[in-house]
Design the sequence.
């Protein structure tokens, strides 16, 4: 007679939480790292480009806190579909938190360009 031992499978919630944690960590390393490098380079121009450092920091912290919260909720949820929805929400929240600094930097650069064009027009007017 064969043994009737059942293999225990890993609960879906733990698999989903592990996948979510890897995705959030991947966003932190592979997206946020280079973005902060670009923002740091832009900040290196000093007073020429005014960056919203506070808004950037708040966006990163809030985005990753929401992502970690969603991963934790996925780990304690008993419904498989909800687990995966929370994992996707965590990934999107960390992606938004990771890409917001470059959006804020681009906005500051566009504002600065708006100030440069009248200055160039004034220089041309002085020369002509």
Sequence:
């Amino acid at each position: 007679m064969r043994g009737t031992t059942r293999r225990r499978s890993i609960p879906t919630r733990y698999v989903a939480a592990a996948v979510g944690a890897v995705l959030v960590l991947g966003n932190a390393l592979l997206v946020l790292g280079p973005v902060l490098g670009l923002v740091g380079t832009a900040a290196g121009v000093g007073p020429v480009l005014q960056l919203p450092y506070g808004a950037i920091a708040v966006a990163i912290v809030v985005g990753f806190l929401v992502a970690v919260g969603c991963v934790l909720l996925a780990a304690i949820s008993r419904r498989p579909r909800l687990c995966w929805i929370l994992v996707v929400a965590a990934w999107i929240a960390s992606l938004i938190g990771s890409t917001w600094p470059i959006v804020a930097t681009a906005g500051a650069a566009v504002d600065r360009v708006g100030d440069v064009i009248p200055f160039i027009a004034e220089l041309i007017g002085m020369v002509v």
Summary: The chain has a mean pLDDT of 90. Residues 117 and 123 are 10 Å apart (CA to CA). The longest helix spans residues 80-127.
